[in-house]
Amino acid sequence: MAPAGGDVSTTAKHPATRALDAILAALDDAGIVATRDAGSFYPQPAGILVGLPELTRRTAGARIFEIPVLVVSGDPLNSELAVDRIYALADDVALALAIDAYSISSWRSSVNAEPLPAIELAAVVTVTETALALIEQEGS
Fold first, then answer.
1. Rounded to whole angstroms, how far apart are CA atoms 110 and 140?
2. How far is the C-alpha of 23 from the C-alpha of 46, rounded, in Å?
3. CA gyration radius for the chain?
4. How far apart are CA 93 and CA 16, in angstroms?
5. Which of 6, 29, 62, 76 could form a disulfide with 2 if both were Cys (CB 3.0 to 4.6 A apart)?
6. Which parts of the chain have pLDDT scores under 50?
């Protein structure tokens, strides 16, 4: 531990990572379990996978990311129960992330060669640059 008043070195998270953390925290706050670990993800009977952020815009003090959130069904959508389950979960995710629309999609894992039915939501996250700018200035 550094002595009081001394400099402490910290590693700053990239804004894209902070955007991912914000999505996962918002879902967790709503009681929704989600992951960004596609390697260990397998929905049974349904699950939520948070994808990688896409930088869509920069402003003077922020970066704006769009992040795909997939609600994936591990079951084929050939029963009313499976259809109701995936749409109810998509509605919960949309409410938690303040998303107005979603679209039909699919997800393919390395474990299952067949694509699984999914609903894709696009979450928009704005991350401020102030912490990143301060760290870059100190390192100069």
1. 43
2. 18
3. 18
4. 20
5. 6
6. 132-140
Task: For tokens 């109810």, name the residue.
Answer: 88
Residue-range domain boundaries for the chain: 15-139
Its pTM stands at: 0.81
Q: Does domain 15-139 have CATH number 3.30.2000?
A: yes
H or E segment to which residue 93 belongs: helix 80-97
- What per-residue confidence (pLDDT) applies to 12? 79
pLDDT of amino acid 134: 43
| Exposure b/e, 75-112, CB count within 10 A at least 16 = b | bebeeeebeebbeebbebbbebbebeebeebebebeee
pLDDT of residue 5: 60
Can you give the pLDDT at residue 80?
A: 96
Burial (CB < 10 A; 0-12, 13-18, 19+), residue 122, is middle
Strand intervals (E) in the chain: 46-50, 54-58, 62-73, 102-107, 116-128
Question: Cα–Cα distance between 120 and 72 in angstroms, integer?
Answer: 9
The secondary structure of the chain in percent helix, strand, coil, rounded to multiples of 5, reads 30, 30, 40
pLDDT, residue 137, reads 42
CA-to-CA distance for 15 and 129, rounded, in angstroms? 8
